[in-house]
Amino acid sequence: MLRLEQVSVRYGATLGVDRITLEVQEGELVVLIGANGAGKSTTLRAISGLEPLAGGSIHFDGHRISGAMPAQIIDRGIAHCPEGRRVFPQLTVRENLEMGGYRRTDRQRMRQDMERMFDKFPRLRERAGQAAGTLSGGEQQMLAIARALMSRPRLVMFDEPSLGLAPNFVEMIFALVQEVRREGTTVLMVEQNAYAALQMCNRAYLLTNGRIVSQGTGAEMLANEGVRAAYLGG
Ligand SMILES: Nc1ncnc2c1ncn2[C@@H]1O[C@H](COP(=O)(O)OP(=O)(O)OP(=O)(O)O)[C@@H](O)[C@H]1O
């Protein structure tokens, strides 16, 4: 469904990612793990068209999307739930959800989807008219996820959805990510919480200094010596 071939992104003199090749099959939950600065967020930003490529190509459903504008990439069916949530703080919860569907023209179905989001996240319904900036961190993460889903993506990318959340919220967000996949949306996720991520994923890639240094199924990566030593406490 998604294929990155030898993708590089350059920030000045440094390479944020360096000749990365990876793929995501339809229906999979694929995880990127690695230390801070390894290039995980940059990879997602490149897919979304937010970073120009210094080399390589990205294809989605057989179409080349590298070089396309971010809005065109959303139209192809890719949504991005960025690191740090990035909700629009002055807009209400409802307006944030509308922004998630801003490329859609089917207003009636969009309203239905918003209702479905409110069914899924009763906390957001209770706070529909409240400025998003006043929500707790966990609630903002729910909103960021719901906003991404409002574009009806076929592939959704989550960048560190558990970051900075209390343990009960972390569990909830991970349950939600798995539910999104069960409901038929393909997921590519960056996650610091490697143990939890590897347990729930189909496949994973380990990045170090902008390069993919290991890959395998979740079970293979949980058993991988290098992964265990660096990310799972031996
Ligand atoms: N806008 C930018 N300008 C310059 N350098 C950048 C920029 N964004 C990222 N980098 C650099 O590119 C490299 C990869 O960063 P990236 O944010 O993709 O890592 P990451 O694996 O997502 O780490 P983290 O978990 O800390 O977000 C790092 O060396 C980082 O300093």
Overall description:
The protein has 234 residues and is α/β, with parallel strands linked by helices. The chain has a single domain (2-87, 151-231), classed as 3-Layer(aba) Sandwich (Rossmann fold). Helix content is 39%, strand content 26%. The chain is built from ten helices and ten strands. The chain has helices at residues 40-47, 70-76, 93-100, 107-120, 122-126, 137-149, 167-182, 194-200, 218-223, 225-231, and strands at 2-11, 14-24, 29-34, 55-60, 63-64, 78-81, 155-159, 186-190, 203-208, 211-217. It has a six-stranded mixed sheet with strand order 6-7-8-3-9-10, with helices on both faces. Strands 2-1-4-5 form a four-stranded antiparallel sheet, with helices on one face. Helix 3 runs parallel beside helix 6. It is globular. The mean pLDDT is 93. The structure holds adenosine-5'-triphosphate. Adenosine-5'-triphosphate binds at residues 11, 14, 16, 34, 36-42, 83.
Topology (elements, then pairings):
Blueprint: E1 2-11, E2 14-24, E3 29-34, H1 40-47, E4 55-60, E5 63-64, H2 70-76, E6 78-81, H3 93-100, H4 107-120, H5 122-126, H6 137-149, E7 155-159, H7 167-182, E8 186-190, H8 194-200, E9 203-208, E10 211-217, H9 218-223, H10 225-231
Parallel strand pairs: 3-8, 3-9, 6-7, 7-8
Antiparallel strand pairs: 1-2, 1-4, 4-5, 9-10
Helix pairs in contact: 3-6
